[in-house]
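pasting for the record
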Amino acid sequence: MTLVQCPYGPLRPEAYGPTHLRSTGGGRETDTASDADATSRSYRRRVTVIAIESLSKRYPRVTALDRLTVGVEPGVTGLVGANGAGKSTLIKILLGLAPATQGTASVLGMDVATQGGAIRERVGYMPEHDCLPPDVSATEFVVHMARMSGLPTTAARERTADTLRHVGLYEERYRPMGGYSTGMKQRVKLAQALVHDPRLVLLDEPTNGLDPVGRDEMLGLIRRVHTDFGISVLVTSHLLGELERTSDHIVVIDGGKLLRSSSTADFTQRTAVLAVEVTDTDAHPDGTAALREALRQAGCAPHEPGPAGALAPGAGHLVTLDLADESVYDTVRDTAAHLGLGLVRMEQRRHQISEVFTERSAGDVA
């Protein structure tokens, strides 16, 4: 049997007593000291999870991070950026596994430059790439990781069973991981990041290689990590839609620089644009064009279709127009009915995270 070394180093056994072991099976805590539990919850509420100030990481031919300054509060935070934007480099620095060229960063109030070991005691890490030994079962592997994290043997086995149940691998826990699907392997990596009951987990592209159903299931698990167990999450992805659905807060970086950091609600707030989709009919084979022309004659000034609109999925089948007041809804409804067109949907558009990159590109061109 081949076992791999814990990617973030062993933890001190004394860091875990009975009051720190929490069940992940049903979402209930098994702490025996209520005062310690209350103190832990209070600590999680008041501490800034991650604080980064003017952080840079330079290599001989590339700058991975460029004077990055951002703060991360408790909750689920999405770190967005294209491949090569500096996400994985930032995670390595936050874990104390790579030194920064300049600037400072702290995780759970601890300095990444001098307290890397202490940080890794309280943080779980799910790496992007496949690093699982094929001839070992999920139970053996996660128990091994729990033991390296400092848990006693009995506690490690109990925590492993609970954690594998939480990620949906309880029935398959004794099979060698070499026969696992990509989705199952991703769940094992999530389990080993959670097994030592961390205060924070760093998940590097957790949906990488998954099909749409597998992505949805993984995103649901990630959300539950915080909602059910109070563990803060920093999750990286280059798929913007995933993080819009999962995260409370979004941090966008590009080329190692911060583009924007704000709540997901701010990113996706409603615009003053109404989007309308209608059906085609025998009388109007192109219902979209017919509605656009009729609305123009009614004085509504719908937007002209063009390359910008084509960036949004399905934009070619939508009529968009400015929502000046509530009467626009009535005008659109009555116009569609007059033409005999079926009204599929009529809704206010929302901003999307992708607009941040579009604005950046437009500014570079300008």
